[in-house]
Amino acid sequence: MQDMPEIETHIVPSSRPPTGVGEPATPVISPAVANALFSKTRVLQRRLPLNLDA
Length: 54
Hints:
1 helix, 24% helix, elongated
């Protein structure tokens, strides 16, 4: 952490509705985790919440 450069944050005024950099990736997180679990467990998860006991 001591090697991390300083981060500057700039808030830009806007009349548009709020969005964020992380929001577009949110819908693909669950399928990615389900695919990772399948590659390790060979149990296909098709419903949320994911059942880790299956």
